[in-house]
């Protein structure tokens, strides 16, 4: 019989095609970004200070570590200094570069200013002598007295500046083409780099070029800059034995590349595994009935990604988790609709799951908030699609089996399980939390390269002590900067390494320089160096220190001790510590401090929805109890195994409440729903386990932890449901349904 093309069917087809086109276009507009801001608490004072510092001095640098087999070969080798200077010039002219610091440019600037300084010093010295002698002659003094007046006039000058001339003249003409000048400025008598130049010449066999990007670069511009730096270094023609390009921008770009590449792979793996699960688990049914739960989940996930694309909102590396989680969790809701007679109950459960996921929005870290909101939206869209696609698939009638009242032994088991969960909740504050941005790159080659560079440089991060005031170039300010640097080095010299500081640059002025002498010294130094430690308006001065990768708890204590060791600033001035390590510590403190709220909020959010939507409120209370039990058991297991929490798993309660509440409501509904709960447990666990092949260690751990949490959620729901069973009347005879009307799992 021929199907007539009615106006209604035509309209439905047009709407379907339009929806499909819109979804595809939205997914193609989706951007994945892993900027540093997504791993730090937005609006935190430490993050704001980091951004302000970047505006004045540039962002965290891209670091190129160049090594040679011969000591001092990259600076004193034939033609190497010229090639290095060309490289630094090329890097300085790249788009989005705020500043470049390298040994060749430093040598060139020192050579130019040295020539000018020597000429000015000599001229100033001669002028002082001449004026003093003329004054003496004008007074009619003897020749000896005239000569003595001239010597006295230049005495103080010689004491202050003579050392520069003495050190400079034996090296010959101050020019980069003079190896003796380079040797004398950069290296000491033993051929080792002088301490003040360690930030660009860390060892005798290596040099470092630091490329500071302008502040506020998005991920696309950052990746483009990292690629340009790599290409420039490769084409420099330097005789290197090893080249390492690293730094925070490089690490975040590597995470973005990995995330972008893994989204289709991890999502495809989850899709294939779940496809096999539905094909193999379902009995003789039509292909549509076998695959419509997965179809609904795929559609809901695509609509979620399209929504982010059309809204112009980038997603962080959490997008890798989005597809496996939505496919695993979302494909369970069609099963619920096919097993639960009361569809309203399924809708309420889905809203509770969305509320639990949405509770991740209280996290201080943007990428966790993004993931929670995306999962909440994905659940709602998947359920909506399920209701549309499965509206003709009637659920079975309600069937309740006869339950037995819990006996004494069962109550003993329940009490033991509650005590174990309580122990886990008590142990929650004792678990370590890893909230450093570097942890996100765990398992990637970029982090291994960063750790190798740390061995060469002696540090991998940078923290700055910032003095803010009306004039940070005053004698009082310079005196404070010197005292602060001395205090930091004296107490923390084994952990902090001075990079480039104002006391080092102006050390030639002596211990008590006047304002005029400081001003003259600033004019003698190249702006290339002074702008690295003083802001252009003179209201900020930096003491920059390098530090190594370390546990965030130990790093937090180090920074607290550093702030405590600093002397009181000059009257009217302010002191702050700024840098990625400071911001990371603030993120660590916020995530650690919010452990109980992060876990309880999700349970409470899901429970409130269930209390408001379910006809039997006792079921809602049991669902919340199951979520609390599963969370406690998982925390206890992590504590017993010596594992730590991540920014993703610190909110285990919110994540466990999704599956625990679903399973509890199903197990309390009837025999058929119980069977579906078991299969839904397997389906959700498969979604999480699809993250295990990821090369990003944080995601692998998250997948394993959440898969175990799903299993514990099912066990908790089973324990709560069985302990809460009451003896019921015998079931009514079940109305037989055609096989086509049953939705098998």
Automatic annotation (TrEMBL):
The keyword Nuclease does not apply. Keywords: Membrane, Transmembrane, Transmembrane helix. InterPro entries: Mycobact_MmpL. The chain crosses the membrane at residues 263-280, 292-311, 317-339, 346-365, 371-390, 411-428, 596-614, 621-642, 648-669, 676-696, 702-721. It comes from the Bacteria. PANTHER family: MEMBRANE PROTEIN MJ1562-RELATED, MEMBRANE PROTEIN YDFJ. This is MMPL family transporter. It comes from Amycolatopsis acididurans.
């Amino acid at each position: 019989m021929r199907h007539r093309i009615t106006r209604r069917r035509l309209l439905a087809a047009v709407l379907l095609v339009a929806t499909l086109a819109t979804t595809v276009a939205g997914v193609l507009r989706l951007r994945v970004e892993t900027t540093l801001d997504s791993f730090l608490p937005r609006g935190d004072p430490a993050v704001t200070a980091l951004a302000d510092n970047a505006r004045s001095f540039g962002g965290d640098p891209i670091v190129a570590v160049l090594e040679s087999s011969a000591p001092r070969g990259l600076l004193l080798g034939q033609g190497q200094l010229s090639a290095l200077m060309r490289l630094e010039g090329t890097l300085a002219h790249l788009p989005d570069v705020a500043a470049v610091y390298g040994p060749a440019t430093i040598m060139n600037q020192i050579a130019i200013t040295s020539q000018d300084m020597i000429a000015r010093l000599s001229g100033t010295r001669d002028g002082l002598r001449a004026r003093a002698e003329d004054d003496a002659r004008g007074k009619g003094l003897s020749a000896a007295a005239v000569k003595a007046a001239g010597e006295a006039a230049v005495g103080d000058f010689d004491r202050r500046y003579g050392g520069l001339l003495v050190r400079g003249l034996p090296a010959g003409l101050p020019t980069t083409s003079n190896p003796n000048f380079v040797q004398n400025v950069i290296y000491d008598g033993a051929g080792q780099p002088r301490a003040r130049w360690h930030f660009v010449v860390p060892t005798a066999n290596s040099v470092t070029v630091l490329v500071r990007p302008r502040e506020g670069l998005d991920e696309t511009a950052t990746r483009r800059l990292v690629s340009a730096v790599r290409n420039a270094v490769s084409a420099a023609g330097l005789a290197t034995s090893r080249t390492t390009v690293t730094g925070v921008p490089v690490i975040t770009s590597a995470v973005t590349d990995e995330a972008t590449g893994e989204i289709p792979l991890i999502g495809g793996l989850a899709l294939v595994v779940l496809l096999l699960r539905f094909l193999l688990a379902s009995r003789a049914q039509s292909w549509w009935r076998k695959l419509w739960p997965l179809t609904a989940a795929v559609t809901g996930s695509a609509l979620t990604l399209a929504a982010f694309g059309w809204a112009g909102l980038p997603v962080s590396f959490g997008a890798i988790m989005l597809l496996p989680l939505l496919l695993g969790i979302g494909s369970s809701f069609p099963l619920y609709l096919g097993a639960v007679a009361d569809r309203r109950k399924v809708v309420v459960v889905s809203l509770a799951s969305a509320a639990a996921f949405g509770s991740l929005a209280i996290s201080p870290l943007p990428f966790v908030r993004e993931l929670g909101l995306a999962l909440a939206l994905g659940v709602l869209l998947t359920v909506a699609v399920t209701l549309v696609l499965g509206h003709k698939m009637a659920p079975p009638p309600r069937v309740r089996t006869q339950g037995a009242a819990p006996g004494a032994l069962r109550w003993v088991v329940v009490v033991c399980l509650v005590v174990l969960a309580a122990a886990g909740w008590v142990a929650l504050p004792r678990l370590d939390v890893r909230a450093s941005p570097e942890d996100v790159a765990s398992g990637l080659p970029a982090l291994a390269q960063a750790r190798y560079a740390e061995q060469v440089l002696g540090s991998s991060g940078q923290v700055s002590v910032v003095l803010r005031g009306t004039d940070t170039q005053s004698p009082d300010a310079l005196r404070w900067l010197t005292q602060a640097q001395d205090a930091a080095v004296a107490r923390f010299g084994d952990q902090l390494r001075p990079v480039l500081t104002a006391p080092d640059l102006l050390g030639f002025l002596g211990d008590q320089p006047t304002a005029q002498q400081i001003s003259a010294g600033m004019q003698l130094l190249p702006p290339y160096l002074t702008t690295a430690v003083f802001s252009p308006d003179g209201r900020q001065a930096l003491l920059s220190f390098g530090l190594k990768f370390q546990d965030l708890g130990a790093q937090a204590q180090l920074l607290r001790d550093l702030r405590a060791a600093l002397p009181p600033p000059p009257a009217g001035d302010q002191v702050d510590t700024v840098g990625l390590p400071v911001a990371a510590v603030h993120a660590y403190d916020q995530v650690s401090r919010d452990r109980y709220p992060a876990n309880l909020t999700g349970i409470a959010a899901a429970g409130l929805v269930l209390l408001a939507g379910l006809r039997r409120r006792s079921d809602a209370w049991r669902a919340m109890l199951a979520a609390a039990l599963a969370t406690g058991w998982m925390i206890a297991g992590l504590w017993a195994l010596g594992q730590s929490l991540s920014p993703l798993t610190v909110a285990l309660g919110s994540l466990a409440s999704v599956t625990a509440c679903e399973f509890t409501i199903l197990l309390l509904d009837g025999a058929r729903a119980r069977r579906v709960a078991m299969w839904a447990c397997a389906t959700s666990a498969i979604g999480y386990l699809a993250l295990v092949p990821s090369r990003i260690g944080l995601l692998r751990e998250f997948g394993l932890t959440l898969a175990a949490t799903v299993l514990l959620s099912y066990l908790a729901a089973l324990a709560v449901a069985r302990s809460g069973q009451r003896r019921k009347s015998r079931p009514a005879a079940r109305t037989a349904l055609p096989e086509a009307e049953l939705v098998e799992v």
